[in-house]
Amino acid sequence: MAHRIAVIAGDGIGTEVMPEGIRVLEAAAKRFNIDLAFTTFEFGSCDYYLEHGKMLPDDWFDQLKGFDALFYGAVGWPDKVPDHISLWGSLLQFRRQFDQYINLRPCRLMPGIKSPLAGRKPGDIDFYVVRENTEGEYSSVGGKMYEGTEREIVIQETVMSRTGVDRVLKYAFDLAQTRPRKKLTSATKSNGISITMPYWDERVAEMAKQYPEIAVDKFHIDILTANFVLHPDWFDVVVGSNLFGDILSDLGPACTGTIGVAPSANINPEGKFPSLFEPVHGSAPDIAGQGIANPIGQIWSGAMMLEHLGYKEAGDAMVEAIEAVLSEGDSQVLTRDVGGQGTTESLGNAIAERI
Amino acid sequence: MAHRIAVIAGDGIGTEVMPEGIRVLEAAAKRFNIDLAFTTFEFGSCDYYLEHGKMLPDDWFDQLKGFDALFYGAVGWPDKVPDHISLWGSLLQFRRQFDQYINLRPCRLMPGIKSPLAGRKPGDIDFYVVRENTEGEYSSVGGKMYEGTEREIVIQETVMSRTGVDRVLKYAFDLAQTRPRKKLTSATKSNGISITMPYWDERVAEMAKQYPEIAVDKFHIDILTANFVLHPDWFDVVVGSNLFGDILSDLGPACTGTIGVAPSANINPEGKFPSLFEPVHGSAPDIAGQGIANPIGQIWSGAMMLEHLGYKEAGDAMVEAIEAVLSEGDSQVLTRDVGGQGTTESLGNAIAERI
Ligand SMILES: CC(C)[C@H](C(=O)O)[C@@H](O)C(=O)O
Ligand SMILES: CC(C)[C@H](C(=O)O)[C@@H](O)C(=O)O
User: Fold this and answer.
1) Measured between CB atoms, does A251 come within 8 Å of chain B?
2) Shared domain check, B342 and B303
């Protein structure tokens, strides 16, 4: 039976890297005998917003809920639509309504990609950031008082539920179980953020009891970001709240030099709703339309999608193809950001051929 | 007339680096003819807590409010007192009750100190983080419901006032005015944290109108942490909320390799209350008691204190002395963290002699 994939390219370079993502997925599907059926949607982009006054049609939930996965490009074009409108109107809706409570991002040094850190080489850095993706600091509760006066005050509530915290911790501990080092690091700030963060620590301590084989440590977010730079080799699985996870999952790929090519998965682990796979890079209005965007983030996200659908071998083959093409370093093939003179298409093609 | 300085060494290595801070301050005071009068206090440490059941005596405010500055070592010893108790009971009280609404930290590559970033040398990185220090995410408003049940929920409010936001922005813009590059970067997350952060952006835009000579930009905190690693040379003055400033002012010194030696100032700019000067490093229980802690953070904090008291030349001379001793690289003098075999005292002595 075919796996039904909803494709939403979104804005800017999202529309350019998406065809390459699909190209490589189709190559992998062919080689590993997987039946993928892609359906493309126009909504979830700023152009759609300009035409319809909203990012998504009213029945988007029903249109999408039956799919096995969502393959997303990038959303946002601040000159057309303010970010908080385009993002809360699309990506953040999917995450919440489809209860994609895990955001998973690998941070790994790749061959052929220069790390900004001194003296680090592939193998030295290889960890995952697991981010809570539906509650916490990203809340819609709060408001303004004494508006427009000197006494103006703005309040926004961070909301953590036991259900919300425990389920992301469980996912992270389970992931740590599958890794050779079996190590979990919790991001906290309980010395300063004195109500929610001590609670987070409490739940980590509680969950840790059920995983005696896992080595658990925690760092306050300030020193944790410092340690990403100073000791990236310390980390294996790092788990954080919505905001802390957001920060760490940009900083991690920055430390490996892979922020332009990193993938991410927004997962509903129970499979009750479709999960969503998207590159970490945004829509990059500054280079959009030139055909020079690096498609690896989209392709690597496709690999995570295949793994999620149960095809680990096929996903691994996609990542190996990416690494092989990067290692070869053919400047006719590689895009500019990784030192070549090639195009989005030349790089996508080369990776597809490898498979 | 003498400047009255309250000295609180606090915990762990705080008690070891403090004498060196004072030694170098006294050398600078002698050379520049400044009259400093130090008064030492035992409170504000975990040992005080164990004896008295509180971090500070009830009349601490009255005891300290008449001083011209507070010179602080480090507080915290989790095995004795949980961090959120020791910190909310001391440092965070000072910041709030003495309305030290500015937290200022320099991020600078120093001669003789290795940066974890590839290919950066002194001169390449030199910026300030200005952090809001009294409100925002560090609030004491919130609580727990359905405690101990599956439905448990924890809420903590981020509170931003116009007064609180505007005054830190004004300080940061004023600081940017004094710098050759006249550049200000605002840390935000208005695409995700949809109530407080768009408000922060609004106030930045409003304040910017009064400083047409300042080049202003903003980044979301996730990509901003990435850019600290990828493009630290972009920054001049970076301003952020309490939490974002906390993160950036650890990450910045981490990128320059100076996290063990960085200083910080907690400032009440109006001088209505004393300001507080402390090293960024904590009490470091793991190396406490061995006499090997690097005293530069304490000494550099002393330099910021002298500058705050109106003696810029003397403060600069202290920083120059630090740089000179680091450049010389005498391994008998330097502490282990910077490649030597010396002690806290040998390094403090060498810097004092330079002055
Ligand atoms: C110890 C802690 C409460 C404090 C803070 O978060 O403010 C520290 O990290 C700092 O930056 O001074
Ligand atoms: C665009 C933004 C709202 C989003 C987030 O903060 O979640 C992005 O940074 C991400 O990490 O996917």
Assistant:
1) yes
2) yes
